[in-house]
Structure formats: C-alpha cells, structure tokens
Amino acid sequence: MNLRRVVVGVLETSCWIVSAGGEALVVDPGDQPERVMAATADLHVTAILLTHAHFDHVLAVPALVDAWQVPVLAHPAESPVWPHELATVLRDGHWDAGTATAELLADDPSRLAPPGTLWDGAFTPVNEANLPIGPLTARVLHTPGHTPGGISLLVDGHLLSGDTLFPGGPGLTGPPLSDFATIIDSVRTLLALPADTRIHPGHGPDTTVAAERPHLAGWVARGW
User: Fold this and answer.
1) CA–CA separation, 2 vs 44, rounded Å?
2) pTM score
C-alpha cells in the first residue's frame, strides 16, 4: 500500500490518497483540486470517499468528479450534513469553521467565503463494508459523533479517522448534528484496534492506537 497526504484548504485538511497496484481511492478532497490531481497523476482513481461532509472535506469534489468521472462514497446517515453546511453559509455568508471561525474571519473574511462552484451533494451510499483498492481490501467503519454519518477507513494497519479521533482526543462535537457520547462510543471502537495501528486524522499529525488508548477515561471525564 502507498499512502500520500495532500494538505489543502483554509483548515489544512489532510486529503489522503490510498493506492495499491496503480489504483487509488481519494479520501476527503477538501480543496485545491489541482494539487490533488497532481498528486494522483500516476494513478487510476476509482472513487472519492468522504469521512464526512463538512465544507473543508468536500470543496474539491465537483472539479475532481468532473475530471475523473468517479463515484463519491459517503455513509447514508451523512445526508443532512451538507445541506446544513449550505444553509449556514447562505445565512452567515461564510463557512462555519468551528472554534477557528472568529480568528479566520478577523484575519481575512475571504478565507471562509464559498467558491463559485459547490458540490451538489450527490453521493453513493456506503455502509460498513469492504472496499477494493487494487489488490488490497479496505474496511469502512461507521464512526458517528462528529457527524451522524462519519466514517473511518482501515487498510493494512492504517486508520484514516477523519475528524473522529486525533492525537489528544475526539473531534469537535456540539449541536445540532454532533454528539459527544456518540463520538466517545466510536473512539472506543477505534481504540480497540491493534495497538500498532497507525492513525491518520483529518487534520494535523499522526498517532497510534497505543499512544491514545490510555487517555480515553480522561477524555470522557473532561467532556470534550
């Protein structure tokens, strides 16, 4: 397996390219489609997989679908998330970047402005299942909490955890489409994987199950 990361967009989202045997799955193309296409120029991309549908994980989808003519895969429970993102940007005039919103708007409001072409929200539903990537098989895990249809991808000892699990704890939760107790249940599932499983989150540095597992009780106690 070959794993490539392209860090894109205002929130420095990790777009992961998982490949084997010349075939590739592109996970979370959050922005800057030209950079994602350059990073996959030597590969045959068979699909785009979304760990969830927040704006910073999907903005490159329209251009990439147009270029590659491939399906977009997401969990069926994720259906309300993109419409909520669009309603937010229509109401406020900018994306909701969570705890980073105020700082980004103060620095340069245009950084959270929507692009001219937006994803239409169409995707092929994928539940917990196995996905072929060339000769490899990747396992899709439903890991809700950050969003209702959040998923993680397990392949060859590597876990792409989206915004479910980071070094130091679970991803952001808060109303209306996320839930702390739910994400903790998902994190418990992920931390039950073998200790040497390498975790590649949707933003920032990697970690391992062994490094994060001892801290679960502390995350539950702090409540975030």
Assistant:
1) 13
2) 0.97
